[in-house]
């Protein structure tokens, strides 16, 4: 390149191509996204969060929580699981057969073969789709995170470091509001040896008045504040907990299918 | 034939090198002074942030220094406060030297440098009081971004004008890298701000995609362009050998910008699968420019009869080698098999710290130590600090980024094993974080030495200016008899 002007076309082409790919592409493909349909249901996902949950995202952003927490669950793939629903007319033969078969971690073809064998003996089965992966084995989510999970988040706080656990489904994993508040105020009170800094500045310690505040935190034994005082969350603390409790990526979607486990009462 | 050496010779024939250097004095002091200050403040904040891992409740009652805020402010101070102004200052000087002209419009970069530093100050305060935008590497709010964007354009005007006034039409390899960097920043910074930090940002996870693109193009590509452009100027100059070779440098330049611009989308990101895949392919192709750069650096430096003795030559050599390692780490973390372990661990921050401190900061400090005495017209006030700082930086960065990387792998091994409790993974990294803190402390000490040299030089220059002014005021007015006397003596 002898001419000064040839540097600019070179840089223009190189950067322009990646701009089209990683800026224009996602802005067109994802920026106009709408709610997605939930599989086998007439519901749509996600539900727009309201009130404190929306404000809580801003508390999450302001305090840089994403520096240590991710909000994305990874998965390696899916497997099929065959579940016996009814033994049918010949229960002894079916249970004999079932005990010899491998029922989990199957491919689609294997699952079909297994269910054919069982139905041939009169049993009835269901084939479940089960996502597989380390994060899922940890119980951090039922399926991988997909673009639809972040539709209403502004700013999207994906995070890139797990100095603390993933929070994509914290609203399902720890739905107890008091637990969340105590954890924010004094992490080591509920999680032993936690490396999380306490966010005491989101709380107010005040003298116990005539009537204790209904919002006051309930501490586990040994961590209660000094006698005659109570710890009350500020609106920010309530907002961020409302946001955390709203984090539930629990809908099966076309791009992330799974069979929800329905626990029978 | 080295255009460097040739240009120096011709330069003395047309405009003397010392006049070129003197024309850069005020703008460079404005850029470097702020940069040195932000380097110290940024590293101190980084140290404050990492203290959370030693004593979690250290800042429990102090929202300003809570980990998420202090850490983001520290990273941005290193990148926007130190790297970019230092890079721009070195760029202005290289352009003036290569063009063999005095810096064109020297007052513009002086004003722009101050605007830039005010922008950094506003941005830092905003992050600390909780007004960050929440996007990694783009945390500064709109007001600060606008100031910094304007300041960058102003400096670019002066740089391009100096480039346009060059006496030799043919370009030197450093020109390509530095000009591309001048073009790169306004594009990526305006794109990121217009898509993300407006009243109507893009929706959903497209935000994350654009932020990944921006962060990679700034932290990896922009720093690489400026750092390598500087290294390709100083390595031949300090080694006393021509750059080996221009064709290979052209190849490295093209492949770096073509492949580098596509890196940076993490493998596990909840984005359409083609995006992480494209990024993985681009990252693996990055090995091509890395090899080319390694060959250029080795062939230029090897066989030089110059020992570096901890001087600027050592800095630039170490920095160039660090860039190769940083690139290899980037490739590793984009490789799907490796990223299953390293993703979401301290390995990612290790790569970034290695890129910013191990590569860019060291190259810049070396370049500044080499050029500043020429620009100021007097030697460094503490010349022994140069060697000391080199050792502090080298050891510190190896300890800091090295232990983060190893700790990240340990943490990743535990994370990838669902039988291991999550707390085990944090515990595994904790020990390495604590060791790394020592390294960070060493880097902070080194940066203090750097700041001491810069500030002492500025002070010395200002005192000299003051003395000249006072001497001028005090000097008796020339009167007619004086002149007559002088005339008599002469005749």
List keywords for this structure.
heterodimer, A: 265 residues, alpha+beta, Cytochrome Bc1 Complex, Chain D, domain 2, 2 domains, two-stranded antiparallel sheet, 9 helices, 6 strands, B: 17 helices, 0% strand
Tell me the span between the first and last alpha carbons of chain B: 52 Å
Number of helices of chain B: 17
Q: Taking strands numbered 1, 2, ... along the chain, how are they ordered across the largest sheet of chain A?
A: 1-2
**Global structural class of chain B:** mainly alpha
Number of strands of chain B: 0
Regarding quaternary structure, what we see is heterodimer
- State the order of secondary-structure elements of chain B, H for helix, E for strand: HHHHHHHHHHHHHHHHH
CA-atom Rg of chain B in angstroms? 24 Å
CATH classification class of the largest domain in chain A? Mainly Alpha
> Do you know the CATH topology of the largest domain in chain A?
Cytochrome Bc1 Complex, Chain D, domain 2
- Biggest sheet overview of chain A: 2 strands, antiparallel
User: What low-confidence regions of chain A span 5 or more consecutive residues with pLDDT below 50?
Assistant: none
List low-confidence stretches of chain B.
Answer: 1-12
Interface with most residues: A-B, 74 and 87 residues
What is the second-level CATH architecture of the largest domain in chain A? Orthogonal Bundle
The CATH homologous superfamily of the largest domain in chain A is termed Cytochrome c-like domain
Shape estimate of chain A: flat
Order of helices and strands of chain A: HEEHEHHEHHHHEEH
How many whole angstroms does the radius of gyration of chain A measure? Answer: 25 Å
Describe the structure.
The complex is a heterodimer of chains A (265) and B (491). Chain A is an alpha+beta fold and 265 residues long. Chain A has 2 domains: 37-74 and 136-245, Cytochrome c-like domain (Cytochrome Bc1 Complex, Chain D, domain 2), CATH 1.10.760; 77-132, no CATH class. Helix content of chain A is 34%, strand content 12%. In chain A, helix 7 (177-185) crosses helix 9 (235-245). The longest helix of chain A is centred in the first third of the chain and has 23 residues, at 7-29. Chain A starts with 6 loop residues before the first helix and ends in a 20-residue tail after the last helix. By secondary structure, chain B is mainly alpha-helical. The radius of gyration of chain B is 24 Å and the shape is globular. Mean pLDDT of chain B is 93; it is low at 1-12.
